[in-house]
Design brief:
The complex is a heterotrimer of chains A (578), B (90) and C (106).
Chain A: H1 5-35, H2 37-44, H3 58-68, H4 73-83, E1 99-105, E2 113-120, E3 132-140, E4 145-146, H5 154-165, H6 173-195, H7 212-226, H8 228-247, H9 256-270, H10 286-299, E5 306-312, E6 320-325, E7 335-341, E8 347-350, H11 356-369, H12 375-410, H13 414-442, H14 450-471, H15 484-507, H16 511-517, H17 521-563, H18 570-574
Antiparallel strand pairs in A: 1-2, 1-5, 2-3, 3-4, 5-6, 6-7, 7-8
Helix pairs in contact in A: 1-5, 1-6, 1-12, 1-13, 2-5, 2-17, 6-8, 7-12, 8-11, 12-13, 13-14, 13-15, 15-17
Chain B: H1 2-30, H2 35-59, H3 63-89
Helix pairs in contact in B: 1-2, 1-3, 2-3
Chain C: H1 4-25, H2 28-35, H3 42-66, H4 69-93
Helix pairs in contact in C: 1-3, 1-4, 3-4
């Protein structure tokens, strides 16, 4: 089918890049926002704008709250029927589910603490799977006050899951689509390098003064090559993170017997019971266990805070408490776990240093999940993500520019459709994200189901942006620029500035305060980023206006010269201005 | 024909990768490697294998050969992994 | 309140930009953009390449001074991306600015 390697790679790069590019835009843009997802949460939920706290007393504050947590209604309704074995008896009512595990999680970036309970499923279809129905809460660790669960964490609860799942939960379809997009990204990077003949000579090449087709390709190559390690590793590690559970679940399907054999051996080796004993037992002081864990970490020259705490087989004689160190000073994830017998507080096991394979894996997944505390690296990650987004967007622009003249001459609508979809997933997506923040500030503070309204607004506004993009796309069929690009840039600028102003008006936190007098960088950072985006959008809008005027003038001159034929080919004129 | 290449790359590639993963893990476990170690390491390699065969599906001259190697190889490796597991667990 | 780590990382950033700029100047097309003359003399080209690599090496050393190795490697790779991007954008919009790093007469 393809007569040469170049042709096959060119086809692959173009068509897979185009189709999956729309998904990759979402992954890269919302991935960039996710670097500062918790800071965006602070902006969206003003009651949480205080400094990060270490994990508070488990015995005095967390345990009483955990004892009150109920199984989530939606989780129960969605999953209980699938997990329960109806032949063994009636389904246990939601409020009577037994408690099986507790967990609590903090990070150096989060003022609030997330905790949860895993409720067991009596009479399950698959006892070995240890399925749970979950109930999670978020609290203010200074007071133990619960955050209302209809307050949407726009950063960590919306933008972040968007980037790996598109919020398409049916049978994890979204995760699979993003996985396919990640594979496409890897393939596009390799095929791109094969196609790019002068990769070293053109390493620093960007010629914005040339026509759009050339300058778009320059920028596409530039943004793809300078951050190539970033793009490759993020796509690769994104796949690696979900490989075992979603993409290649060999261990829980074909090789399940081997896996089970290992679990049993592991339990015997580590002394951490895999199953309940069926005998009740009390819970000793977890705070004392935390103190012992910190002492042991310090003794191994890695003093630190608790990042994650988990209690298995709650209430049972086999119950054990696992305490993991927060990995904020390194790339590899939370580790160095210490496990205690829950009834007595005795140390059952200290996780040994990891093997080479485990270390490599922890490094790779850690560099993607970013639990570390390094502000420069985080901002450099945002840069990398935005470069990826620009790479894909310029790919769309190049695709359209290369074809729109032929399509215009032949009366085809292909370029027009692709261009409108590009507007939707570039400027349209940014509009939806910023508008969501604006809506967050406009809605009444105590509105019930506030989070649902914000999500609805996001999707509705994105659809509106798409309608606008298609409605205005006529000129592309005549080989011109779609004015929607410029108009949506202006919309982004307006919305971004409104968001900053509304933050000031509704919460009293303005930039002079959050930067200088009452410094609070999470909110200041979001406000400053919004302003920077507005400035960039204005520059882009004005540049687009100039190009559109240029194209109009050329068009007018061509029409005039058609009446006085001076022999110059029409195409030469049309391509002179970019 | 395009559909043929795309499905060979995606479906054939997936089948081959699945087989590679299964045989890789089972094989390493048979040699005494810890299951989770084997799973972790093989999965990382499997992603690169998928990328490689996916690109090959488009670059190769003969689509028939692509299907033979990817689907055939995948089926063979999966069967071998299953047989190896039976030998280990019994 | 200037933390030593921030100083070291800032220096690393500057070394990266300078290193990329020298490597760019070693290429005819970019030398022409910055200085107007057709290209650097052979000895100059070699000197620019050496300086460029030295700049990137210095940047790596500074990164490793600031953080533990696993983190430093990520910071350095990302600084390279940022540095190369800044040089490319400067060449596109204000190429004369890079003239400070190496005179057209050398």
């Amino acid at each position: 089918m393809f007569s040469s390697l170049r042709l096959s790679m060119s086809w692959l790069h173009t068509w897979f890049g185009l189709v999956l590019g729309f998904v990759l835009m979402v992954a890269f843009f919302f991935g960039s926002l996710s670097v500062f997802d918790r800071e965006i949460d602070r902006w969206a939920i003003p009651q949480t704008r205080f400094a990060p706290q270490p994990m508070p007393s488990f015995d005095r504050m967390l345990l009483p709250i955990l004892r009150q947590v109920q199984p989530d209604e939606q989780d129960y309704a969605a999953n209980m029927p699938a997990l329960h074995d109806a032949s063994k008896g009636p389904m246990t009512p939601r409020l009577e589910l037994p408690v099986d595990e507790y967990w609590a999680y903090t990070t150096h970036r989060d003022p609030v603490l997330i905790m949860g309970v895993g409720f067991g499923v009596p009479q399950p279809k698959d006892p070995a799977a240890h399925n749970h129905i979950h109930g999670n809460v978020t609290i203010d660790p200074r007071t133990g006050e619960l955050l209302r669960d209809d307050q949407l964490k726009i950063g960590s609860g919306f933008f972040y899951p968007m980037h790996y799942s598109l919020h398409l939960k049916w049978r994890d379809l979204g995760i699979w689509i993003v996985g396919l997009a990640a594979l496409t990204m890897l393939a596009a990077l390799v095929s791109g390098v094969i196609l790019h003949r002068r990769i070293w000579r053109e390493f620093f090449t960007f010629r914005p003064w040339k026509r759009t087709q050339r300058s778009a390709l320059d920028l596409h190559n530039l943004t793809g090559v300078v951050a190539l390690p970033f793009h490759f590793f993020f796509a690769f590690t994104g796949l690696a993170i979900f490989a075992g559970h979603f993409y290649l679940p060999v261990g829980s399907t074909l090789l399940k017997p081997l896996h089970e054999r290992h679990e049993v051996q592991e339990a015997q080796r580590t002394g951490l019971p895999h199953e309940r004993a069926g005998v009740a037992a009390p819970l000793a002081s977890v705070d004392a266990m935390v103190l012992e864990a910190k002492r042991r970490w310090a003794a191994r020259d890695m003093a630190g805070q608790v990042g994650f705490l988990q209690i298995h087989h709650v209430g049972d004689a086999n119950s054990f408490v696992s305490i993991y160190r927060a990995g904020s000073d390194r790339v590899a994830l939370v580790g160095e776990g210490i496990h205690f017998k829950a009834a007595t507080g005795a140390v059952l096991r200290e996780d040994p240093p990891r093997t080479v394979v485990a270390q490599i894996n922890e490094f790779l997944t850690g560099l993607h999940l970013q639990h570390f505390e390094h502000w420069l690296l985080r901002w450099l990650y945002v840069l990398g993500g935005l470069l990826g987004a620009v790479c894909i967007a310029t790919g769309f622009i190049f695709f359209v520019e290369k074809r729109k003249q032929q399509h215009a001459a032949a009366g085809g609508q292909g370029s027009r459709v692709v261009d409108a979809l590009a507007v939707t997933t570039v400027t349209g997506m940014v509009i939806a994200a910023v508008a969501m923040l604006v809506v967050n500030r406009l809605l009444p503070a105590d509105l019930a189901g506030r989070g649902e309204w914000e999500k609805a607004a996001f999707w509705a506004i994105w659809v509106l942006a798409m309608i606008h993009a298609f409605a205005r796309s006529g000129p592309v069929a005549r080989s011109r620029i779609n004015p929607a690009w410029r108009e949506q840039c202006w919309a982004i600028a307006g919305l971004a500035i409104s968001a900053v102003l509304l933050n000031w008006i509704t919460t009293g936190d303005h930039l002079v305060g959050t930067v200088f007098t009452d410094t609070y960088w999470p909110v200041a950072g979001v406000d400053l980023s919004l302003l920077a985006s507005a400035a960039l959008a204005v520059v882009a809008a004005r540049s687009l206006a100039r190009r559109e005027r240029c194209a109009e003038e050329v068009g007018a001159r061509v029409q005039a010269s058609d009446e006085t034929d001076d022999g110059l080919p029409v195409t030469a004129r049309l391509t002179h201005h970019g | 024909m395009v559909v043929g290449r795309v499905s060979a790359g995606l479906l054939g590639g997936y089948a081959f990768t699945w087989g590679f993963t299964a045989l890789g893990i089972a094989g390493l476990v048979a040699l005494g490697v810890d299951f989770h170690e084997a799973e972790t390491g093989v999965l990382l390699l499997a992603l690169l294998v998928f990328l490689g065969v996916f690109l090959w599906a488009f670059a190769a001259a003969s689509l028939a050969r692509v299907w033979l190697v990817l689907a055939g190889g995948g089926a063979f490796m999966t069967a071998a992994a299953w047989a190896l597991q039976r030998a280990i667990v019994h | 309140m200037v933390d030593a780590t921030w100083l070291v990382l800032t220096a690393a950033g500057m070394a990266t930009v300078a290193g990329c700029a020298w490597l760019a100047l070693a290429m005819d097309v970019h030398w022409q953009q910055v200085h107007g003359s057709p290209g650097p003399a052979r000895a100059t080209r070699i000197a620019l390449r050496v300086l460029g690599i030295a700049g990137l090496a210095a940047s790596a050393a500074l990164c490793f001074m600031a953080d533990r190795p696993s983190m430093a490697v990520l910071v350095w790779v990302m600084l390279l991306a940022g540095g190369a991007l800044s040089v490319a954008l400067t060449l596109a919009w204000k190429p004369e600015a890079l003239g400070v790093l190496w005179s057209g007469r050398w």
